Amino acid sequence: MSHDWYVLVRARLPQLPADVAEEVAQHLADLYAEALRGGAKPAEAAAAAEAALRDEAALLEDPRSTPRSAASGWQAGQSHTNADQRGGAMFVNLRRDVMYALRMMRRQPGFAAVTILTLALGIGVNVAVFAVMRAALLASIPVPRPEQLVSIVTWTASNGDHTDFSYPLYVDARDAAAPLAKVAAYSAWTVGVATPDQRERVTAEFTTSNYFQVLGVQMRVGPGFSGPDERRGAAAVAIVSDGLWRSMFRSDPDVVGRSILVDGQAVTITGVAPASFTGFVRGQRADIWIPVSQYAPLLHDRDLLDRRTTSWLFLVARLDAGRGRDQLERVLTNALRGSAGAEAGSDWAVHANPAPQGDDSLVADLDKPLQLLMMVVGLILVITAANVANLLLARSCSRQSEIAIRQSLGASRGRIVQQLIVEAAVLAAAGGVSALVAGTWVARLFELRTIGGGALALSVRPDTMVVAFTAAVVVGAALLNGLIPAMGVRRLAPSEVIKHGRDGSRVAAGRGRLRATLTIVQIALSLVLIIGSGLFLRSLARIRAVDPSIVSNSRIAATLNTTLRGYDEARGRQFYDRVLDAVSRQPGIQSAALGYVLPATPGGMRNNLPPRSTTPSIDEPLEYDLVPVSPRFFQTTDLPLLAGRDFEPSDSSTSPPVIIINERMRARFWPTGDAIGQTFRAWTDSYTVVGIARDTKYRSLREKPRMVMYLPLTQLHRDTVNVIVKTSLPADATTAALREAVRGVDPAMPLYNVRTFAEHLDRALYFDRLRARLISWLAALALALAAIGIYGVVSYDVTQRTREVGIRLALGAQRREILAMLLGTGARLALVGVVIGTVLALWLTRGVASQLYGITPHDPLTLAVGAAILFAVALAATYIPARRATRIDPMSAVRSE
Amino acid sequence: MAPKDDLKKGGAELMVLAALEDAPRHGYDIAREIDSRSGGVLRFHVASLYPMLYRLERRGWITGRWVEKTGQRRRRYYRLTPEGRRMLIAQRSEWRTLIEALNRAAGLESA
After folding, report:
1. Among A308, A555, A799, A869, which residue's CB has the most CB atoms within a 10 Å radius?
2. DSSP state of A137
């Protein structure tokens, strides 16, 4: 042999193992010999053989020592990848994978639709809740540098923050803060606005004239307020919102200088606020802004600006650049300590709370319910993802042969996993886009109310944060949905698939286990939600059951505010008498009364007394509510008097002061004896107890028993009262009768907040109802998804076992036994899921204990009912495919393999 | 995923397995066999062939054994293992499915 090919190979590829080199050398020798035989000259033959070593580097990657995935790089194109090329290849692959995923979607539009819809649902509820949460709690108000804004409040160790200020105290704060910050004040009120052809009730913000300047809001039209506008006696001016400008002035560019009636008083418009700005109070849409000095004329309360005792303004400040909150707090605490008067003790301070989100007083209560909802929809997302993963897994089973071919063709596991993830990502992205559109749309329908029952005006929109949140959820869903089926693929060693055939039982078993696990996850999480919704529903039922007299459709209440008509006290008293008289004479009214507050209503009057300041004397600080009412209040509200008498017309402003106390107050002051006829003294006031009323709920249905003292309205006049009637007529007839009666006394007196006690209670329970209802819906959704999951797994199981079932039937098994056997599959899944779910629920619901009433998170009945519901649904979802299996023809089932 | 590279690679594996179906062969022989069976359309380079042989061996589909014949250098002969044989049958059927599908999808059979 003229060439020593072995020496050549060793020389060219010294790293090649000896035996490989020998084999390659032999190959070259064969090539050379053949070329010679074919008539080539020796030099040509040698060149041809040598040329065969062209891709010599590939030979160096000794396949026996390299992992298989690397070995797959031996062919041209993908060989010898350095990091750069690998990156490039990945990008090329990514594009191909996306194209491939889109093609798969087109090929199976039904599957794609179901998957995308499911994902859109799961992602959509998350987007909706997040968008609401962002609008309600998270987003900054649309002004420049919102982080410089602070809310100024006074603080005491015992009562915490106190938010309202009198006008003189505001002026002190503004002047003291001047070197550090600019301070403005505002206060909201509902007013009637009218142009010659239109009238509307809108929220007005009464502000200091520097309000817009402090917030940094530029007028859209007109100059806005100027300093002199705040001076007393200045001509009345107003700024209107963009919305009001459009609706009442048809976007008139010359609106400045036009006049508008505000509660009957003409004011001149000096500006239009930009559309993005609806006031500093989050959740409240202000439509008109009027300087505070003109609030007084509106209320016929001219000394409001001078009184230090009436606190009605809220303060917002913008810190000058580089100034800190603590500096401002120190300065204001020192400056205002004196002027704040009696309030100022050693534990008194002024706080400047960060307020980039505006005044959150209306929405602060929303944070807990929204956080809870966020958790719930998070669980829904996991359930949805499990469901979609199950669908994808099922499809990857039917695509097993495709994947097997590709694997045996040498596709690495990584490539297949990447492709599955890309497919899931494309689906999730499609779901996410639908979710973003649908979610924000749904979120806008979602009407939130304050605890007091007023609707919150929130601007829910898909801003960057919402979009970013959606994207994050999509990525999470894609990973979950791609990785889980990919776990199934990893079990598919090509030889295994081939060895066991297309339906290789080990592979199927592995998939089956994975699918069963996913189903168990769904069952467990659904159970958590079902138990959660059960707890909140039962809690709501308990609250409603607190006092049946409060929950009534035959009692209707409405609010009268005599200040709206500028009545003084004497005129107010007279008005109340006449209204009560007129209302009582309306047909169908069984009883009518006035009360300062309705049961289960936040607010009202309260006395806080130090120890030993009363007679009988008590050695502890005391707190009791004061409720001024008219005669027949107890009869009208069905609150029984346990002893003594009701108030009577003879209990007048000039007769000796009398009170009716509730059971708890009686038990506290006269634990042993009879209270009727006894004298109760607090400070200098002295009352005779004439009656004992049964305890009810006063401020909230959740409250612990409180002490309450009822006084005749004649002896403690209030300018706002509720008129309450007990009626045998339908609510709308009664409402009409009420309006007519009031109109008969004063045609211009507005009657508002008309509602039945049941409606009133529903408002008071707004959060409880909202939470219970939403969680129930979401739990039902979760249950449906879990049922689909179980159905899918059992159907698949049944298909897998068709032959087995056929054989069993052929061997004489009863169909009932077969059914029981298959039901067992579902029951086992359900059982495992229920056990895990119960444990999870016990653990998770601890966090909501404080939001429940009269029930603990470990309520055994709720747990048992939840588990039973889930178990029943699981069995039902099993039964349908199982029953189908028992109907198969044994012979054809056996033959079909 | 790009089926093209997979196709080439998997096709090559299938051809190697098929070449060993009826008799044990050494590397050069395998290359020639494939060359002739495909009418010269499919051709292996040294750099492609040997790594693949080792890969198939490592998977347990073929085994190689050094055989010495008098007057010649020793050669490494490869034969199908029982598993390799099963693999060949399975791959044939998968490929048949694939090719039928390709035919239908790409209209390869115009007649």
Report:
1. A555
2. I
The pLDDT of residue B107: 62
Chain A residues whose beta carbon lies within 8 Å of the beta carbon of residue B25 = none
Is A350 in contact with A154 (CB distance < 8 Å)?
yes
Question: How many beta-carbon contacts under 8 Å exist across A and B?
Answer: 129
The three-state secondary structure class of A63 is coil
Q: Phi and psi at residue A627, in whole multiples of 5°?
A: -125, 100
Sorted by where each starts, the structural domains of chain B and their CATH numbers stand as 3-100 (1.10.10.10)
Residue A71's identity, in one-letter code, is A
Residue A92 corresponds to which tokens in the numbers above? 């090329």
Chain A nearest CA to B72, separation (Å): 10
Q: Residue A752: what are its φ and ψ, rounded to 5°? A: -130, 180
| Contact of A659 with A710, CB cutoff 8 Å | yes
Q: Tell me the two tokens of residue B61.
A: 């589909």
Q: Which residue intervals of A491-603 are DSSP H helices?
A: 494-500, 505-544, 569-584
Both tokens of A619, joined, read 């050695």
Collect all residues with Cβ–Cβ distance below 8 Å to A494 and sequence separation of at least 6.
A404, A407, A408
Q: What is the DSSP string of chain B?
A: --HHHHHHHHHHHHHHHHHTSSS-EEHHHHHHHHHHHTTTSS---HHHHHHHHHHHHHTTSEEEEEE--TTS--EEEEEE-HHHHHHHHHHHHHHHHHHHHHHHHHT----
* Contact assignment for B73 to A26 by CB distance below 8 Å: yes
Question: Kind of pairing, strands A286-291 and A198-207?
Answer: parallel
Q: Which of A535, A569, A606 is nearest to A771 (CA)?
A: A535
Cα-based distances in Å from A279 to A287, A449, A855: 8, 17, 40
| Spatial separation of the C-alpha atoms in residues A84 and A314, rounded to whole Å | 62
Phi, psi values for residue A642, rounded to 5°: -85, -25
Q: Let me know: does A530 contact A844? Beta carbons within 8 Å.
A: no
> Which residue among B26, B51, B87 sits closest to A498, beta carbon to beta carbon?
B87
A335 SS3 class: helix
Residue A504 token pair: 């290789």
Residues B68, B70, B72: CA angle, nearest 5 degrees: 70
pLDDT digits (tens, 9 = 90+) for A319-356: 999 899 999 999 999 888 877 654 445 678 899 999 99
CB–CB contact A26 B31 (8 Å): no
Q: What is the DSSP letter of A13?
A: -
Q: What is the pLDDT of residue A897?
A: 44
A553-581: pLDDT as tens digits: 788 888 888 877 778 888 999 999 999 99
Cβ-based contacts of B10 with chain A (< 8 Å): 405-406, 408-410
3-state secondary structure of A647: coil
Q: Does B91 touch chain A (CB under 8 A)?
A: yes
Closest chain A residue to B92, measured at CA:
A405
In angstroms, the separation between the Cα of residue B111 and the nearest Cα of chain A is 26
Asked whether the beta carbons of A642 and A690 are under 8 A apart, the reply is no
CB-closest option in A53, A74, A498 to B51: A74
Q: Shortest CA distance to A893 belongs to which of A824, A820, A801, A819?
A: A801
User: A507 to chain B nearest CA, in Å?
Assistant: 16
Sign of CA dihedral B81, B85, B86, B90: positive
E strand or H helix that includes residue A623:
strand A622-629
Q: What ipTM was assigned to the predicted interfaces of this complex?
A: 0.83
- Both tokens assigned to A192: 């009637």
Report field, pTM of the whole predicted structure over 0.90: no
Which positions of chain A have pLDDT values less than 50? Answer: 1-2, 61-86, 342-344, 494-506, 897
For chain B, 111 residues long, the average pLDDT of each consecutive 10-residue run is 54 86 89 78 74 86 85 85 89 80 64 37
